[in-house]
Amino acid sequence: MTGLQDRLTPEQVEEFGRELDELRQRIVADLGQEDVDYIQKLIKTQRGLEVAGRGLLFAGFFPPAWFAGVGALSLAKILDNMEIGHNVMHGQYDWTRDPALSSQNFEWDTVAPSDNWRHSHNYIHHTYTNILDKDRDIGYGILRMDPDQKWHPYYLGNPVYATLLALFFQWGVMLHDLEVDRVVKGERKWSEFKEVRAKIVRKAARQFGKDYVLFPLLTGPMAPLTLLGNASANLVRNLWAFSIIFCGHFPADVESFTEAETEEENRGQWYLRQILGSANISGGKLFHILSGNLSHQIEHHLFPDLPARRYPQIAPEVRAICRKYGLPYHTGPLHKQLFSVARKIVKLALPDRRQPEPEPRTVVGDRQPAAA
């Protein structure tokens, strides 16, 4: 863990922050109809894919139609979760004053209630990014994702917990807001989460009923295949979202920080922490769209309220600023980042390897140890 104060001088931090503020203001001033057209077109595409997917599942007795239906529905759920839901709820389009694009009104196609998510993600995660014991996204309360998290035999199951989280990611995000780990430790009381639990029950019941009861029943004798198709689409979305999010936060070179070294943090230091605590994923235009442009996690952590479609535009400038100040800009293809994350998950499941401390020596003169 490298101290933030050791990276740049106070003067450099001030200039660094000013350059990033100027970059942000330039993009804000340029926002307009093109950004609105983009998100509205994407919403129409997502809705079309969902209608097509559910329609094709009606013909699920014909295998190609079933697979095509699952594919279309998977893409619809990925777009809704990543490029639309996540970004709209960040307030990236609040400036439009369009109720349909309001961060406070939007509800996404996942079991995690938007109100709960906005607090745990928009506020907690983006304020305390990668600060141990503050950012609950480090390990999601069940994984050891940093060597400074004290090892416990429980963490031997790290790879198993990570696999289960990937398979049921939307449910993991939902339960994340209950802070069960802190309740178990006695740091929080179960009664404190009464309102959170109520929202979870309502949203989960609605989502479960839609995907696993209503739509399967509408297909009559094809209900079992429709149910399987919906479950498959949710699985694809879960695995994709887990992969993108973990590759943006937990590759080997990404750093974490203590509360002490981030006390009285100024704007430039906050920007610095976002860069050191994030990683990008390289890829083409379609890949970036399907990732919600969270493949540009560095830019997202710097400017979470800018429309994500702008991240590819500003990424070269951010990278140039990092180069100017001698800062790392972590990026790599998906397979490389996934391997790095998987390796970290396995490595941190094991106890820390500590080097034995050398025996003290009494020195006579310059080099010779004293006789026993």
Describe this entry's structure for a reader.
With 372 residues, this protein is an all-alpha fold. It has one domain. 57% of the residues lie in helices and 3% in strands. It contains 14 helices and four strands. The chain has helices at residues 10-30, 33-57, 63-89, 114-127, 158-167, 169-176, 180-184, 194-218, 223-249, 267-276, 285-290, 297-302, 311-324, 334-347, and strands spanning 280-282, 331-333, 363-364, 368-369. Helix 1 crosses helix 10, helix 2 runs antiparallel to helix 3 and helix 9 packs across helix 14. Pfam families: FA_desaturase (PF00487). GO terms for molecular function: oxidoreductase activity, acting on paired donors, with oxidation of a pair of donors resulting in the reduction of molecular oxygen to two molecules of water.
* Element-by-element helix/strand order: HHHHHHHHHHEHHHEHEE
Radius of gyration: 23 Å
Number of helices: 14
Determine the structural class based on helices, strands and strand pairing.
mainly alpha
Helix content: 55-70%
| Terminal CA distance | 40 Å
Low-confidence stretches: 355-372
Main sheet attributes: strand count, strand direction, barrel closure: 2 strands, parallel
Mean pLDDT: 91
Tally of DSSP β-strands: 4
Per the principal axes of the C-alpha atoms, what is the gross shape? globular
Question: Biggest sheet: strands side by side, in what order?
Answer: 1-2
Strand portion, in percent? under 5%
Domain Fatty acid desaturase: 65-331
Region (Disordered): 350-372
Pfam families: FA_desaturase
Biased composition (Basic and acidic residues): 350-360
